[in-house]
Fold this protein.
Amino acid sequence: MSEEIRSEDKDERADRLASEIADAVVDGDPDSVAQTLAELHPADAADALEQLPRETFETVVEQLGGELPTEILIELRDEYRESAVDVLPDEAVAEALEELDSDDATAILEDLEDERRDRVLEELDPTDRADLEQRMEYGEETAGRLMQREYVAVPEFWTVGQTIDHARELGEELPEQFYEVYVVDPGHRLLGFVLLAQLLRCARDVKLSDIMENLESDISVDLDQEEVAYQFQKYSLASAPVKDETGRLVGMITVDDMVDVIQLENTEDLLALSNVSSADGSHTVWDSVRARSPWLAINLFTAFVASGIIALFEGALDQIVQLAILMPVVAALGGNAGSQGLAVAVRAIAERELQGTAARRAVMREFLTGIVNGVLFAVGVAIIAFVWFRDPELSVVFGAAMFATFVWAGISGILVPLTLKRLGADPAVASSVFVLTMTDIMAFFSFLGLATLVLL
């Protein structure tokens, strides 16, 4: 490949290649498309294809037929991979399933409708079909769906030399990537593991039982993928074994799959905090509307609740117009304070940092933070209000309401997600609606309530 291409910015390169592929599609030249894709790393080829409009992309896949490389297919984002699988003939999909590791093959199967999935499975070898059918029985987003069946497991009485010879004899059944050899008892239950690097350092006559290490992870087939990712992060794992309900070794998960899971979970939390259920560059306007409108409807309801609080003090607003001018300031600052505490709390919950006494310390920290910030901003806004309106009583009311709102925002920002977590709900999804509504209600009620008591 030329120096010009190598030195080119990756984004610019993807755009240029996408343009070349689109031109080849218009010219009806699938050979040129195939040649361009073959010169690229599968991930870079997938990036180039994802720059295409959905219709053009589907035309590319259709023109290539079964010639779309399997390595590129599995690198595509979910939306584009599903479109590709829809266009590919059943025979091409079945061939891809046979070439892929079992975990990647499961991802392809998940894209298929039930009827077509049955047709494709019929094309497979009976052993592979039985394995994939069993994997599809595991729940979505569990370790059973993520794991691959290819791994190396040996008895503890074997030597290093026997283990190495066995791995060589596995041939195509040997995993493409693995970092550990698992040691099992006669019932195929896990006893420990030997790092591949340790295996290569030892003499052939050394017994595995002498160099075997204990397992840190504890992953079962029904464990949620978020918990699996947490164990990978906690124990700095490169791979981990997966057990069934009886404790037998049934699969292995590698860190490359966990990178995808961690990114997916973080993205879901980020979008959930903004009350958006999904986002993708390939989504249509209608997809975006369906994803966002339900939460906007909920926010509409909560906004009317806050408006109802304001309506209770309609008389005060009629008599003191300055209240209407200052009221949005209390609500805006309080809302921002609550959002800050909420973002920190949701992230800490996802990282398992708010458990036991740590949760109590976090509540106290946010409470004290609310007090300190409340004092600082209460004094500041009171001075501004006095300079603006020359009314000391109004300034005191304004400052007191700001202080109460900051303290309330700090407490609700941490207690709401903790409470939702205890009740079994997802804090990232539901917390922001409650926190922002409660903060607005406190801001309006404290400011207008104090104004009614003091100024009228």
